[in-house]
Amino acid sequence: MRQAGAYSGILSGGGISGRTGPHLLPLARIKKIMKKSSVDVKMISGEAPLVFSKACELFIEELTKRSWKLTVEGKRRTLHKDDVVSAVATTDVFDFLIGLVDLNENHRAP
Description:
By secondary structure, this protein is mainly α. It has a domain at 27-97: Histone, subunit A (Orthogonal Bundle), CATH 1.10.20. It is built from three helices and no strands. The chain has helices spanning 27-36, 47-73, 81-90. Helix 1 packs across helix 2 (47-73) and helix 2 (47-73) crosses helix 3. The termini are far apart. The model is unreliable at 10-19 (pLDDT under 50). This is Transcription factor CBF/NF-Y/archaeal histone domain-containing protein.
């Protein structure tokens, strides 16, 4: 028989925090952004903000890990904007962010 996965509690409400559920980002804010994304968006199911919240958490975690790796390689203990820019520049998955960061400003070669 198949066992429940690590994220099976997300939609059932059993999360890491009894007060707010499994999400760390504010669901009301996510829902507001989703509604403002298009005039065609009228209603949003209850599960959609949860899924977007988890996707955002995973995205932030991955970008932070890659940035932190560059911080450690630079023998520093403080993560700087340059580390995030370098992580974006050297990772193909983050190509959609290139227009949001200035690659020429304080950017060191990988």
